[in-house]
């Protein structure tokens, strides 16, 4: 029994399976190597912390159960190493966190896998709190292969009892993911499955489910290792790949589970367990480290921006916001998210003086609820001070409100907050806008750039935006490219330097063209080294892309008929790497000086070769020669698609080529509908920007059949076909004039010149009529412009008419048809009547005729007006079916003639000539290609012939099968090959056409019609006979075989052939007209360049051409009808008109798209969404308003009840004062603290002038923290019973005169109010510390247009400051100036003090001020004469100071401190200059 087929062994499947197993093994080994390398790196660079000294402490119930053997570190006794456990009688040192916690290599790292749906997998590592942020950044980017971020989003807020409204939740999720996805941001959170971290994880999850094809969102969770529930599953000395982590919310107790939607986890370990907040410091250092990295890993440019997003939160979140804003990090607070976020959001619009302790009490009670009862008063005072400082830094604070229309989404609010923060430094000027633009480009947020950067305030020059244009192009950001072009970028200036364009090609993304270009550069480098091996100077340049390489590669894609688009460089002009025709490229290099550049074309070509549709579309709209550009793009893309291996990429290229073919069709249709004459000029003009070729030639080379099939192109071809004859002439008139040519002198045949003269005459008559009617010559003058050569045309002469008649391609074609029919008639007569042993006169004439045909074929082969080169011209010649028939007919004729002239092969020669006659007759079908009716049918016949070929292969199987079987049954051992073939192939084939055989039926058998032994060569062999001399074969079998054969062959296969023909006809019928119009050009072009005389007289024309071109070396004749080079002025006018038509086409396309059904559906859906959002917003606002009104009504009811109770009591007692009653009826609390916030927000802030810098929490250059002093408690008059300032007196601040005893402190009180610190602090004395700032000014020029001032550069601080310092008296200059200005110069300036102008004097808000010591500054202005000796001395001092002294212009960009800027503003006012 045979085995079942499914159990069979298939060798091919085995080989494929072995190959797959081998690849799988390689992948496994590679994965193992990567894991081993990663584990080694982690053990070398990443540590954890563990307790090395066990001391029993108080048990903390962080788990579901409590054990008594818990160490002070929080871990149980069993979690310690053996050496950490000491004997019970050990009486050594006590447990100390800093000494008894050590670092060891981390044992928890690798991949983390969460259970549940989706099997989410992330990466994690347990890191020490002392780990360097640089190591962590390396872990993220190099080990975990994360791309460096363009933005860092730090999300913080509530971790427990956190609830977001549905609308705010959706907006937060959508906005956070949008900003992360569009900008390539990293999101950093606490990483646990609770509070705001859980919301971030849900947003990442929703993105992963909705857009699986998009890039992954990076969400990094930085959590404390000691508070992670089920963390033991992540511990493994060699790493977990993966570690299976179980989220157990119910069993976590006071611990927390990791969030399964984060992608990466950094688990911070300080060696303890159960302590929250361990990760805060390391997270802060990591964020600071990342913010110091250059954006996009650039050597120059801005650093990675950081933004803090706040939802909900408590006091810890307030500290995070405060510290972040002190570090310059902008914060975005979501109003409505709860608690501290809502407290800050409610006071943001208020003046600082209105943010009182009472108001903060009220808001805390409102938003914190019962939690407010546990807040101590000192903490609320501190929080009030921090909230005041936060709202004072308004440039770093952004509040997102759902009900507002300013920020439509959270992502916009986040990015606008970053840009707002970057605009704070006015001194940077245009640099601020450049930084913001660089951020917007890196984020790819063109909407932010439109609203925040390219405003009316910003004025840009084209040169200022070149770097942005380059970045947008290389980064593939087409929307930014459009925005930059709209805002002043000039492509002419941007690409004027060829180095910029060359750099763009070097920065091409990985694509087909770049690979081809790299090969060309490599081959050219090797060729150059071989050619210049004796010149070492040429070998040092290396393999560098130049525009010559680009030009050669583009020319290869466009075709060798074009000239190079870019001139050759000096290093590459001595060799040529063209892949098509190196011989033809040498002369093309000679006129490179005339090569013109269209910079828009350069950008368009750069986008096309990388198959970038969006950038190419933008560049195409800027192109001058847009129609040639579109057709050239189609040719380049189709050529690249042919050579591209990747099928998907090739399909994309073909789609883009089709897109630009539609563009070319649209522009030409617009041109043709406006002005037919100009449109025809566009088709045949040589484009200087695209290799000196024409639009028509590009369309033909790109196989753009739809473009060529347009009525305008066909009209041009018809005009070329008719030559100088009018296209309106009927065919019969042309044929009659060909025979009776004198009729052309009678007007029987119309010429184009006659039509032009007639139109001009009619136009002049109309103008004269208008002039007579109106009596004005204005309209005459307005129509008086006509191109030269058109207005003064003369009628054609007799000789010219005769020449134009016979030089018309149409007439040439008909004469050649007549000639060809005459040739066939002569050929037939010779074959049938006059084929003698020796050639007769008619036969000799036939040979001469054929020789003229051969000469014409040779002329067509070498005639190359388009500059294709011989190789491509030969390929084009051979690819034409009619040329193949021509060559075949000529070869057969030559062979037949050679045989005919020999006696032995005379008859064979005649047979060959007869067969050749058949080929010549088939060639006659070519004359029908010009016919609009029969031409398309020939195309259908050619397609059907291909179908017939495959059908015959299928039919031959049945013919041979039946024929061999029948022959074997009927005939026994027939050795005659001819009769075998006749019986096995020929007879079965004839059966299909109805010739039924008689030898398969005994009734029709005749023994006389066959030969018994097959000896008679004229009769077939008889079948096997029995004793009765009748056929012995089974008659029933042969008849059944015949019936089956006829059933399949006649019915099935023939009907299949009919069906195939019908399908081919239906498929090709719609395209035949287009294909015929496309192929029509070659026939017209052939007869346009063909000599006028028909064969055999054409041989005289060939002789003339040979003498002219070869002997006399005259240049070839240029036919302007097909390729015309226009004058410069006419070229510019035509291109301008084409650009106008292109704009009309684009406008009509946009209008069609806007009115399309798909666009209407999208617009309707967007409007519905907008209305829905508006209704939801109004519903929320109305519900909130109702709740607020009800609360007020309830409060008024309570107050009314109190008032009524008082009235009742007063009526009973009759002794209550009216004033008290008034206070009861209208309590103070209602009129003050309950005042609506909107009213407070609209109240202008009282200018108290309270110091701010003197109340900073951290005293400078010390570890001292000030006592918080809110705004309302600054004046000494305000009662502040809990005020307990810290005492501080620096030891290195110099000798203090007045002492620091407590008794002396009471003698000095800061005039600015409380500061939170007692003592003299970092100042040199108690009381006022005098300081002098010197403002030295001068006029830059004699016209006094620019005022300058002298500044000192402090290298240690990296800041600019006015020259000055502490003094004992304001009458003298500071002695500290001697270090920067020199002793001599200081003495000279000191003498000028009497001439100074005192600008200001008094108290200065200095960060060193205390309650008992403060700074008072006197600002002096000394204006210097430009020609004085003091100016010379200052300039000499500046040269020797190496930049320590600088002259700068007095304006608002001054990079000084706030109080010095105010002083400079006053100085500018003294000199009548704007600041």
Unreliable spans are 1-9, 61-66, 533-541, 570-595, 778-791, 1216-1248, 1295-1300
Number of helices: 51
Strand content: 5-15%
Largest sheet: 10 strands, mixed
List keywords for this structure.
1475 residues, alpha/beta, ten-stranded mixed sheet, seven-stranded mixed sheet, 21 strands, disordered N terminus
What does this protein look like?
The protein is built from 51 helices and 21 strands. A hairpin with a 6-residue loop joins β3 and β4. The strands form four sheets. Strands 8-3-4-9-7-6-5-10-11-12 form a ten-stranded mixed beta sheet, with helices on both faces. α23 runs antiparallel to α24 and α33 packs antiparallel against α34. With 1475 residues, the chain is an alpha/beta fold.
Write the layout of secondary structure elements.
Layout: H1 11-45, E1 47-51, H2 97-100, E2 101-105, E3 109-114, E4 121-128, H3 133-143, E5 151-157, H4 166-183, E6 185-189, H5 195-210, E7 218-224, E8 240-245, E9 264-269, H6 280-291, E10 306-311, H7 315-326, E11 331-334, H8 339-347, H9 357-368, H10 377-392, E12 397-400, H11 410-422, H12 430-443, H13 446-453, H14 466-474, H15 478-486, H16 491-494, H17 498-506, H18 512-531, H19 547-558, H20 582-588, H21 599-609, H22 613-622, H23 626-643, H24 647-674, H25 676-684, H26 695-701, H27 705-708, H28 711-722, H29 731-739, H30 752-774, H31 778-782, H32 798-806, H33 809-832, H34 841-862, H35 870-878, H36 881-900, H37 906-923, H38 934-970, H39 977-992, H40 1035-1089, H41 1098-1111, H42 1128-1154, H43 1157-1213, H44 1218-1225, H45 1228-1231, H46 1237-1242, E13 1286-1289, H47 1302-1305, E14 1317-1321, E15 1327-1339, E16 1347-1354, E17 1359-1361, E18 1364-1366, H48 1377-1381, H49 1383-1391, E19 1397-1404, E20 1413-1423, H50 1429-1441, E21 1445-1449, H51 1458-1470
Parallel strand pairs: 3-8, 4-9, 5-6, 5-10, 6-7, 7-9, 10-11, 11-12, 13-14, 15-20
Antiparallel strand pairs: 1-2, 3-4, 15-16, 15-18, 16-17, 16-21, 19-20
Helix pairs in contact: 3-6, 4-5, 4-11, 7-10, 8-9, 12-13, 14-15, 21-22, 21-23, 23-24, 23-26, 24-25, 24-42, 28-40, 33-34, 33-37, 33-40, 36-37, 38-39, 38-40
């Amino acid at each position: 029994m045979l085995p079942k087929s499914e159990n069979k062994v298939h060798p091919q499947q085995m080989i494929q399976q072995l190959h797959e197993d081998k690849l799988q093994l390689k992948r496994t080994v590679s994965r193992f190597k990567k894991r081993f390398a990663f584990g080694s790196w982690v053990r070398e660079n990443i540590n954890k912390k563990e307790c090395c000294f066990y001391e029993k402490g108080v048990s903390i119930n962080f788990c579901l159960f409590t054990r008594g053997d818990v160490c002070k570190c929080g871990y149980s006794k069993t979690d310690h190493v053996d050496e950490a456990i000491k004997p019970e009688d050990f009486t050594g040192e006590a447990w100390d966190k800093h000494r008894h916690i050590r670092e060891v290599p981390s044992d928890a790292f690798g991949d983390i896998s969460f259970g549940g749906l989706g099997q989410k997998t992330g990466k994690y590592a347990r890191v020490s709190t002392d780990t360097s942020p640089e190591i962590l950044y390396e872990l993220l980017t190099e080990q975990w292969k994360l791309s460096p971020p363009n933005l860092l989003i730090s999300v913080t807020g509530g971790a427990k009892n956190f609830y977001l409204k549905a609308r705010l939740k959706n907006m937060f999720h959508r906005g956070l993911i949008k900003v992360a996805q569009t900008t390539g941001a990293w999101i950093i959170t606490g990483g646990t499955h609770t509070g705001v971290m859980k919301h971030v994880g849900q947003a990442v999850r929703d993105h992963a489910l909705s857009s699986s094809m998009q890039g992954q969102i990076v969400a990094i969770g930085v959590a404390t290792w000691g508070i992670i529930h089920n963390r033991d599953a992540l511990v493994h000395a060699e790493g977990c790949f993966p570690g299976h982590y179980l989220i157990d919310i119910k069993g976590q107790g006071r611990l927390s589970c990791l969030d399964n939607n984060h992608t990466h986890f950094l688990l911070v370990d300080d060696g303890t367990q159960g302590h929250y907040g361990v990760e805060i410091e390391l997270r802060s250092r990591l964020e600071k480290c990342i913010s110091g990295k250059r954006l996009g890993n650039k050597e120059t440019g801005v650093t990675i921006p950081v933004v803090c997003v706040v939802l909900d939160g408590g006091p810890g979140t307030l500290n995070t916001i405060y510290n972040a804003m002190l570090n310059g990090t902008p914060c975005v607070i979501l109003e409505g998210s709860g608690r501290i976020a809502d407290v800050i959001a409610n006071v943001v619009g208020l003046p600082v003086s209105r943010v009182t302790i009472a108001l903060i009490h009220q808001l805390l009670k409102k938003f914190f609820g019962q939690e407010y009862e546990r807040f101590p008063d000192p903490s609320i005072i501190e929080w009030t001070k921090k909230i005041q400082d936060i709202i004072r830094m308004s440039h770093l604070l952004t509040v997102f409100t759902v009900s507002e229309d300013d920020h439509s989404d959270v992502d916009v609010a986040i990015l606008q907050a970053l840009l707002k923060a970057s605009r704070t430094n006015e001194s940077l000027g245009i640099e601020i806008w450049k930084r913001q633009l660089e951020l917007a480009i890196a984020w790819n947020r063109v909407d932010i750039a439109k609203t925040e950067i390219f405003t009316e305030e910003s004025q840009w020059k084209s040169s200022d935006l070149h770097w942005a244009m380059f970045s947008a192009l290389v980064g593939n950001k087409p929307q930014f490219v459009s925005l930059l072009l709209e805002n002043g970028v000039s492509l002419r200036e941007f690409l004027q330097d060829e180095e910029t364009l060359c750099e763009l090609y070097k920065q091409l993304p990985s694509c087909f063209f770049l690979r081809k270009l790299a090969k060309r550069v490599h081959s050219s480098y090797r060729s150059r080294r071989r050619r210049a091996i004796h010149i070492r100077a040429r070998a040092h340049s290396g393999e560098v892309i130049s525009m010559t390489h680009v030009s050669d590669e583009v020319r290869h894609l466009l075709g060798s008929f074009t000239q190079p688009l870019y001139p050759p460089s000096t290093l590459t002009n001595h060799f040529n790497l063209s892949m098509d025709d190196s011989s033809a490229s040498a002369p093309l290099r000679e006129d490179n000086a005339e090569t013109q550049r269209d910079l828009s074309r350069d950008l368009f070509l750069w986008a096309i070769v990388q198959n970038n549709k969006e950038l190419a579309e933008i560049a195409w709209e800027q192109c001058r020669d847009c129609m040639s550009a579109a057709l050239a793009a189609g040719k380049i893309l189709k050529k690249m698609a042919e050579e591209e291996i990747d099928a998907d990429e090739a399909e994309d290229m073909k789609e883009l080529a089709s897109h630009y073919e539609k563009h070319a069709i649209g522009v030409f249709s617009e041109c043709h509908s406006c002005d037919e004459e100009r449109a025809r000029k566009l088709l045949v003009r040589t484009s200087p920007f695209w290799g000196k070729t024409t639009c028509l030639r590009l369309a033909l080379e790109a196989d753009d059949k739809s473009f060529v099939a347009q009525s305008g192109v066909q009209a041009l071809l018809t005009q070329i076909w008719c030559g100088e004859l009018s296209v309106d002439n009927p065919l019969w008139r042309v044929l009659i004039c060909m025979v009776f040519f004198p009729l052309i002198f009678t007007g029987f045949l119309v010429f184009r010149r006659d039509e032009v003269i007639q139109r001009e005459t009619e136009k002049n008559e109309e103008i004269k009529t208008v002039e007579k009617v109106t009596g004005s010559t204005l309209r005459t003058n307005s129509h008086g412009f006509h191109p030269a050569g058109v207005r003064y045309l003369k009628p054609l002469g007799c000789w010219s008419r005769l020449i134009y008649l016979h030089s018309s391609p149409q007439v040439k074609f008909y004469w050649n048809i007549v000639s060809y029919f005459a040739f066939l008639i002569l050929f037939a007569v010779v074959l049938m009547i006059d084929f003698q042993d020796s050639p007769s006169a008619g036969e000799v004439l036939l040979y001469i005729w054929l020789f003229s045909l051969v000469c014409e074929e040779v002329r067509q082969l070498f005639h190359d007006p388009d500059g294709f080169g011989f190789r491509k011209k030969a390929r084009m010649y051979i690819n034409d079916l009619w040329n193949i028939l021509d060559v075949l007919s000529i070869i057969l004729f030559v062979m037949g003639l050679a045989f005919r002239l020999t006696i032995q092969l005379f008859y064979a020669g005649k047979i060959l000539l007869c067969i050749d006659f058949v080929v010549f007759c088939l060639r006659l079908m070519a004359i029908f290609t010009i016919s609009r009716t029969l031409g398309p049918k020939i195309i259908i016949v050619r397609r059907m012939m291909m179908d017939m070929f495959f059908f015959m292969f299928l039919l031959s199987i049945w013919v041979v099968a039946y024929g061999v079987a029948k022959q074997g049954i009927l005939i026994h051992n027939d050795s005659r090959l001819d009769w075998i073939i006749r019986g096995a192939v020929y007879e079965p084939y004839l059966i299909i056409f109805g010739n039924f055989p008689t030898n398969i039926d005994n009734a029709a058998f005749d023994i006389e019609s066959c030969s018994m032994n097959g000896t008679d060569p004229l009769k077939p062999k008889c079948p096997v006979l029995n004793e009765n001399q009748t056929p012995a074969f089974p008659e029933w079998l042969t008849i059944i075989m015949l019936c089956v054969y006829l059933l399949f062959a006649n019915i099935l296969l023939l009907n299949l052939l009919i069906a195939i023909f019908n399908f081919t006809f239906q498929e090709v019928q719609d395209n035949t007209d287009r294909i015929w119009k496309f192929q029509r050009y070659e026939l017209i072009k052939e007869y346009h360049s063909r000599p006028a005389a028909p064969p055999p007289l054409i041989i005289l024309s060939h002789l003339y051409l040979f003498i002219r071109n070869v002997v006399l070396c005259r240049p070839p004749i240029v036919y302007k009808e097909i390729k015309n080079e226009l004058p410069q002025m006419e070229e510019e006018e035509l291109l301008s008109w084409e650009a106008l038509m292109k704009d009309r086409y684009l406008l009509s396309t946009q209008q069609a798209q806007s009115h399309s059904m798909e666009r209407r559906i999208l617009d309707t859906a967007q409007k519905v969404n907008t209305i829905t959002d508006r209704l939801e917003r109004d519903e929320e606002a109305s519900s909130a308003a109702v709740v607020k009104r009800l609360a007020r009504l309830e409060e008024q009811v309570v107050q009314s009840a109190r008032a009524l109770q008082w009235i009742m009591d007063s009526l009973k007692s009759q002794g209550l004062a009216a004033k008290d009653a008034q206070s009861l009826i209208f309590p103070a609390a209602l009129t003050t603290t309950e005042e609506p916030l909107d009213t407070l927000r609209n109240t202008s802030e009282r200018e108290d002038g309270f110091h701010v810098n003197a109340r900073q929490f951290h005293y400078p250059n010390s570890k001292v923290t000030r006592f918080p002093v809110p705004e309302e408690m600054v004046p000494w008059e305000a009662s502040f019973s809990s005020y307990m300032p810290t005492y501080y007196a620096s030891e290195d601040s110099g000798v203090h005169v007045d002492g620091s005893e407590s008794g002396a402190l009471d003698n000095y009180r800061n005039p600015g109010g409380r500061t939170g610190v007692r003592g003299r602090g970092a100042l040199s004395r108690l009381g006022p510390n005098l300081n002098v700032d010197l403002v030295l000014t001068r006029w830059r020029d004699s016209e006094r247009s620019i005022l300058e001032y002298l500044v000192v550069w402090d290298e240690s601080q990296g800041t600019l400051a006015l020259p000055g310092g502490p003094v004992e008296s304001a009458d003298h200059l500071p002695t500290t100036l001697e270090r920067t200005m020199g002793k001599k110069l200081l003495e000279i300036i000191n003498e000028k003090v009497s001439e100074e102008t005192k600008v200001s004097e008094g108290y200065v808000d200095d960060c060193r001020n205390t309650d008992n010591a403060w700074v008072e500054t006197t600002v002096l202005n000394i204006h210097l004469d430009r020609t004085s000796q003091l100016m010379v001395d200052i300039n000499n001092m500046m040269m020797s100071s190496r930049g320590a002294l600088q002259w700068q212009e007095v304006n608002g960009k001054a990079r000084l401190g706030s109080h010095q800027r105010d002083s400079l503003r006053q100085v500018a006012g003294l000199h009548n200059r704007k600041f």
